[in-house]
Amino acid sequence: MNQQHPKSVCVYCGSRFGVNPSYRAAAIETGTAIATNGWRLVYGAGDVGLMGAVANAAQGAGGEVFGVIPVHLFDREVGKRDLSTFVITENMHERKKVMYMNSDAIVVLPGGAGSLDEMFEVLTWRQLELHDKPIFLLNTDGYWDKLIALVDHVIDEGFADASLREFVSVVDTADALTKQLQAAFSA
């Protein structure tokens, strides 16, 4: 018998909380919304920072959580073993592949270089027509404003087509994100 998984939302986010308390609040709201909508959270399996906040919120709301962590980050990101599914990979490349392959949509919360790496990889794959999964940037308190301006600059300077900007939906709140995910999954 073929078991069907619920729609899965991959969340890329920081292993730190950042300086603005709104980032943690948005991570908690996002994790809770994923669970209460019956979706599965796919994330980096850490129990620190925004990663831990989104996972703990999803678990607290009764959600299924699929975590993927490379062996070299297990101690640093405090690998969260009490997940529905817990995968340890050899390296970051495998982590990103497993997360991507097990998701139906990508959400990027505030984060650092790792979150940017993950986001740009799936954005590049979308640009190359390797997938058509929706990508959402949760722009909590304008966190991603400069990144959005950079993408616009890349387009304006002729290094990408205007369609690059259309591959990412920017939302300002977890509530708006939830509504966009609901629309994407019902289409």
Mean pLDDT: 93
> In one word, what is the shape?
globular
The succession of helices and strands, N to C, reads EHEHEEHEHEHHEH
Give the proportion of residues in helices: 40-55%
Structural class: alpha/beta
Question: Measured on Cα atoms, how large is the radius of gyration?
Answer: 16 Å
Strand order of the largest sheet: 4-3-2-1-5-6-7
Q: How many distinct helices?
A: 7
Poorly predicted ranges? none
Question: Layout of helices and strands, plus pairs?
Answer:
Elements: E1 8-12, H1 21-36, E2 40-43, H2 49-60, E3 65-70, E4 85-89, H3 92-101, E5 105-108, H4 113-127, E6 135-138, H5 145-156, H6 163-166, E7 168-171, H7 174-186
Parallel strand pairs: 1-2, 1-5, 2-3, 3-4, 5-6, 6-7
In short:
By secondary structure, this protein is of the alpha/beta class.
Protein model, in words:
This protein is globular. Helix 1 runs parallel beside helix 2 and helix 1 runs parallel beside helix 7. Strands 4-3-2-1-5-6-7 form a seven-stranded parallel beta sheet, sandwiched between helices. It has seven helices and seven strands, in the order βαβαββαβαβααβα. The chain has 187 residues and is an alpha/beta fold.
